[in-house]
Design brief:
The complex is a heterodimer of chains A (131) and B (292). Chain A has five helices and five strands; from the N terminus they run βαβαβαβαβα. With 131 residues, chain A is an alpha/beta fold. In chain A, strand 1, helix 1 and strand 2 form a beta-alpha-beta unit. The mean pLDDT of chain A is 93. Chain B has two domains: 135 residues, Immunoglobulin-like; 110 residues, no CATH class. The chains are: A alpha/beta (131), B alpha+beta (292).
Chain lengths: 131, 292
Amino acid sequence: MRILIVDNDKNTVETLKAALDGKKDIAADTAYGGREALEKMTVDPNYDLLVLDIMMPEVSGIDVCAAMVGSEKMRNTPVLLVSALPIESKEFQTSLKKFNELAVIKGVMEKPFSMADFTAKILTILESAKN
Amino acid sequence: MHVKRQNKAAHRLVSIVSAFVIFTGGLSALAHDSILSSVAAGGNMTRYAAGDSLPVAVTLTNYGANGPTDVVISYSILDPSGHAVYSESETVAVETAASFMRSISLPRNLKNGEYALTSAVFYPVQTSPATSSFKFTIESKFLGVFVNNLIIYLVSILAIAIVSALIGKRYAKKRVVRNAPLEYEKIPARERIFYEIASDIIAQIRYRIGGRALELAGAVQGLKIDERTGRVLAMTKDPAEVIAMLIYHYEKFLGTKIITTPEPLGKDMAAVLRPVNKNLSIIEKYFKINHK
């Protein structure tokens, strides 16, 4: 399983990568911004999961989602959205149903979270995608 | 006042009375003479300066007199060692009683110290004079105020000034902490503007909701602030994200928009605020806050 971790915060990226590295069958790749993520996915669209932050300079996580939805090659890649914003809130859950550009989002995790919860969530989404 | 000149000086009863002081002298004359006398300070003061007028209250009583009698009253000022530094006398006639005020000019050369004014009453056929006295002190004056008092006044004024200054300084400091824009000259120029924006937002919200503004700011990930002043100590995440989150927390708490971007923005400022505004537009669209 190939996972692309996308966040402009270097510490977050490294922490999440470290949590996933060594997990059975998981290979974590990194991108330090939305633009870099899209570039990587354009070259190699076969990631099994994107761990994506929302607020990033220039190209935001929402922009990445919108680009993925508009791309045949990328739209089937599930996204785990991670953010300090209240993405587990009722308002954002409503937005997930309402806005088409968010259709690739298959899970959300509000920062801060534990690495155990994070890996569990990753495994759940990957399992769902398989089915 | 019954003061008359009189020549007769036969056997008279002597008594000394005073409304002001206990006699310090003259009692020895009681048994043999017929006139009592007293002198006392003519006012409530016991402190004078050299050159001042010393008011003296004199009381003479002629008990059992057959008529007025001439009495010579001698006043002396004795220095702390008991030496007379000033003397004067006068003659008054006493029939039954006399009570009057005298003003004695204190010599200008008197040094500071405790002095005594003594009076001695002389009249014919006396065996010893009736005497009395009271004490007073000579102190230096400056601008009409006793130097000792002046010191007390100055110390009091100084103490009041210090206390006022301390209170004023504390109040001013509090105002500075709360009102003055915080400076971030040590932060690199590229990041400084974000520190200043965050700091100004915190200060403005602090005006509206007080200390709660600091608590909310302290909860923003990537933002470290001084819990007392609201000063931004560090931004450990993307400043545009931190500021957007700060605004989001405040708007959510207040239920109202807190930022209205002035138009038109300068080119530099627009570039600085673009990522912040982008984050805010995401928040506005996907995390709708119910503004009042």
